Amino acid sequence: MSLVPACCNTPAVDHAHWHNKGKLINLSTDIAGKTRKTYHTGSKDSKRGIVAICDIFGYHPTSYQFYDRLAESHGGFQLSAPEYFPEGGITPEYLGESSKVMGWIGQHGDYHKNHILEVTLAAVEDLRKAGCTSFSLVGQCWGVLMAAKAVSEEGTPFSSAGGPHPSFISLETTKDVKTPMILLASKDEADLVPVVEHLNTKGFPVESFHQRFDNMHHGWTGGRGDWNVPEQYTAALEAIDLLGAFYAKVAAASDSKL
């Protein structure tokens, strides 16, 4: 697997102009003997749950705004964004060379070694205790690959997965996916249309969805996004609306089976 160059060379944006609407709380289940936090936001009355997998910068002001706005979209969701990098996300000294970035991901973001699935399922169980009956996964960058891996597991509790500016997504990495996906590419990602076309041969109750934002750079909805720039802000709101509509549609299809 290889990273797009923008993922290796583009730092996070340093600004904080958002008042978080959710709060950091502890997950009920310890992971590898340690307590993890999660950012929980959205309507406590919603039965539709979303677990969010961050990009490699971890918790970031733009990410919090993304979570809050997605949780408020299309009738509302309960959204849980667990702490996948308890020691913090990637730092600037790793950026600039793909080998350094891949080395950091291998150390801190390995699906098996770093307990990504266990953290994700712990968030699901807490959302279930909070009244949610359907679950979707949203990732950003590296997080979309982790989401694809999670919904490739037998017996996955998720009804859909996907996210903006996905890294490492290909026919190979999605061949075992068991749910529809939404993939929102920036100008820096490869052509993802073949991936979505293949997913749509699997006969899922909701078709997978793809849209390309050719005027946006990799990471614009996460840590690399500067929503003080009107074009990025507008594109981020469009992405959030597309994600919310997709997850609401999948949740409705899931509820119809109950």
Automatic annotation (TrEMBL):
Ranges where the Dienelactone hydrolase domain occurs: 38-189
Taxonomic lineage from the root: Eukaryota, Fungi, Fungi incertae sedis, Mucoromycota, Mortierellomycotina
Organism whose genome encodes this protein: Linnemannia gamsii
A Pfam family annotated for this UniProt entry: DLH
SUPFAM superfamilies xref list: alpha/beta-Hydrolases
Name the UniProt record assigns to this protein: Dienelactone hydrolase domain-containing protein
InterPro entries assigned to the protein according to its UniProt record, in alphabetical order: AB_hydrolase_fold (IPR029058), Dienelactn_hydro (IPR002925)
